[in-house]
């Protein structure tokens, strides 16, 4: 039987998963609100589907797997608004449903370690909205839901190289500040591993092995490019917008033990050094 995945909010991470599944004979249906993106999806082998209630509900009747990656907005989770009742009706017929959340639901831990059993105390509005969305999806009876809490995402076209090259990268230093991060190809391999080993109700952190201060990542990217790194700026006196400053409101180290022990994942890029080196090598090969 052909496996069919409906991707609600077919963005950066979902597209990486599609690149893994399509060569294996999967049908991937990706939603978008943009007709131009629909044509790009089609060229990539993904069946495009405009964000429409009737169309999505019809698609739900012919898929086995659902990936929810559209982020919440001020009115809550857009996928839940669009097709929550239809998902509830279809729950028992689905093999696997995944919700892509964020490690922001853990809040600030002063650089300490968190895992999937850590109490959830989001300190930002974004984190609180993600937690509310998690809870809303978990409330649907019989839904074979898997929650993936993603750290900072980087990968092709998304990372520090562009900012370093453009001269817009900054090395903001806040003592004790660390972030966890994850390469998009590792997100895809974890999702694929979960599809092979479904465990409804499971929650997984998606991050690499090396939580690190953000200024170290920028420094390493500059060194790889052979350019002068931007100067360090103290967080207290750095001029930043409210959104940028909010990213520094929380500091924690996120454990990825569960994806290794329960899903057998071996990360392609266990730290940012390996990930950045691979990105640069791919640029050289493409050029």
Automatic annotation (TrEMBL):
Cited InterPro entries: Epimerase_deHydtase, NAD(P)-bd_dom_sf
Keywords: NAD
Entry keyword annotation includes Flavoprotein: no
Sequence ranges assigned to domain NAD-dependent epimerase/dehydratase in this UniProt record: 9-206
Pfam families recorded: Epimerase
Keyword NAD: yes
Transmembrane annotation, as ranges: none
The name this protein goes by in its record: NAD-dependent epimerase/dehydratase domain-containing protein
Organism, as annotated: Salipiger bermudensis (strain DSM 26914 / JCM 13377 / KCTC 12554 / HTCC2601) (Pelagibaca bermudensis)
């Amino acid at each position: 039987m052909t496996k069919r995945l409906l991707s609600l909010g077919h963005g950066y991470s979902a597209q990486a998963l599609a690149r893994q599944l399509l060569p294996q004979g999967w049908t991937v249906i990706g939603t978008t609100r943009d007709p131009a993106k629909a044509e790009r999806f089609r060229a990539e082998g993904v069946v495009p589907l405009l964000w429409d209630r009737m169309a999505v509900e019809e698609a739900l009747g012919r898929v086995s797997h659902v990936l929810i990656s559209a982020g919440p907005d001020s009115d809550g989770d857009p996928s839940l608004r669009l097709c929550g009742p239809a998902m509830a009706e279809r729950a028992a017929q689905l093999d696997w449903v995944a919700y892509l959340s964020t490690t922001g639901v853990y809040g600030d831990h002063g650089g300490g370690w968190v895992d999937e059993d850590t109490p959830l105390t989001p300190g930002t509005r974004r984190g609180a909205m993600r937690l509310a969305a998690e809870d809303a999806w978990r409330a649907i009876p019989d839904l074979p839901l898997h929650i993936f809490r993603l750290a900072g995402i980087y990968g092709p076209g998304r990372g520090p190289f562009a900012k370093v090259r453009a001269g817009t990268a900054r090395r903001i230093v806040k003592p004790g500040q660390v972030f966890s991060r994850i390469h998009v190809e590792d997100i895809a391999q974890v999702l694929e591993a979960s599809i092979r080993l479904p465990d409804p109700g499971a929650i997984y952190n998606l991050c690499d092995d090396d939580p690190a201060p953000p200024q170290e990542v920028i420094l390493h990217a500059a060194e790889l490019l052979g350019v002068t790194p931007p100067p360090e700026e103290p967080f207290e006196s750095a001029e930043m917008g409210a959104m940028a400053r909010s990213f520094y409101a929380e500091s924690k180290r996120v454990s990825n033990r569960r994806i290794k022990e329960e899903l057998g994942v071996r990360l392609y890029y266990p730290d940012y050094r390996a990930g950045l080196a691979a990105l640069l090598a791919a640029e050289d090969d493409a050029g």
